[in-house]
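User: Reviewer 2 asked us to show a designed sequence for the structure in our supplementary figure. I'm pasting the structure tokens here. Could you produce the per-position amino acids so we can include them in the response letter?
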């Protein structure tokens, strides 16, 4: 693994200056609330604000608190889907649905008729994809997940055991979803095992720079632009980015595609990861969330970034 410093430039060049200006443009927005579902998240400093981009030439440009560590939370879901697709030779694509729900991320809802999770970007789907990766038991799957995430990030990653423990203890809705999927015959590992592997995946520590490289790896056909490793196939990356586009920002996904127009995933830690197909990966961190669980300043930052760099996928003048 490379050290993050070897590829990172918090630069004073044009792009670095533009990122810094974007950060300053949203700094005084103070709407939203820090998530308090687990104690460690509730302790986050609401003032933190970071932004990073990873480009096809393997450069990482960043501004603000881009090296502040936080638990990845739901931003892990696209990567769990990718790892499940790899480890099941693509069969995971039939184990979960791919339709948006219009419901909250932890809604106790499965797909009518099949008992499958509605899509891999909500909790039911991520509990299932985490259970589909190789590993034998919960510990083995969690290890495989952390290794896989490290390949996406191009650096070693660790689990925050305190966050994972709280998620297991307090994640009643995730336990309920796992038991519901067991009863429907769609989850083939024990409910506690499924929650344990998923909780540890959510508790992996990243920063905006690592997350930007992870998003870039999906955006660039599965090849990590920093390490050069082909982490997943181009077909897997395309499948994952497609589902990020339709389901990545919970029941705000439609509004997100109109305003930002870049496939993305939000998380309750206040992170956003974007995969701009063929262009770049980006990530932001700002802990205050709107009522749908998306970072308030992060969403505004990404809307402005998309406009500034011409990233909207449906913009005919994109270039
Ligand atoms: N660990 C959280 C949960 O499963 C993740 C939720 C999120 O980031 O949306 O409830």
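Assistant: Here is a per-position design you can include in the supplement:
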């Amino acid at each position: 693994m490379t050290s993050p410093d070897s590829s990172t430039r918090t630069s004073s060049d044009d792009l670095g200056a533009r990122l810094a200006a974007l950060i300053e443009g949203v700094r005084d927005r103070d709407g939203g609330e820090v998530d308090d579902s687990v104690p460690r998240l509730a302790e986050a400093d609401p003032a933190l604000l970071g932004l990073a981009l990873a480009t096809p030439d393997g450069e990482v440009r960043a501004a603000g608190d881009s090296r502040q560590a936080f638990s990845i939370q739901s931003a892990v879901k696209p990567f769990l889907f990718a790892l499940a697709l790899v480890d099941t030779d693509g069969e995971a694509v039939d184990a979960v649905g791919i339709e948006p729900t219009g419901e909250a991320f932890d809604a106790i809802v499965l797909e009518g008729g099949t008992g499958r999770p509605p899509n891999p970007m909500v909790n039911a789907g991520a509990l299932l994809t985490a259970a589909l990766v190789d590993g034998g038991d919960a510990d083995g799957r969690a290890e495989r997940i952390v290794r896989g995430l490290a390949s996406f990030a191009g650096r070693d990653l660790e689990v925050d055991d305190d966050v994972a423990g709280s998620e297991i203890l307090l994640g009643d809705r995730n336990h309920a979803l796992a038991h519901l999927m067991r009863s429907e015959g769609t989850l083939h590992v024990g409910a506690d095992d499924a929650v344990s592997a998923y909780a540890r995946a959510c508790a992996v520590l990243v920063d905006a720079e690592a997350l930007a490289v992870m998003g870039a790896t999906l955006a660039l056909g599965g090849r990590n632009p920093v390490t050069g490793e082909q982490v997943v196939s181009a077909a897997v990356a395309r499948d994952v980015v497609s589902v990020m586009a339709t389901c990545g920002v919970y029941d705000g996904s439609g509004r997100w595609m109109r305003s930002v127009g870049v496939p993305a995933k939000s998380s309750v830690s206040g992170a956003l990861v974007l995969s701009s197909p063929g262009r770049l990966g980006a990530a932001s961190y700002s802990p205050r969330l709107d009522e749908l669980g998306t970072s308030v300043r992060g969403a505004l930052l990404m809307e402005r970034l998309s406009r500034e760099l011409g990233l909207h996928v449906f913009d005919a003048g994109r270039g």
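For the response letter, you might also mention the following. Confidence is low (pLDDT under 50) at residues 2-12. The chain has two domains: 4-73+206-309, 75-202.
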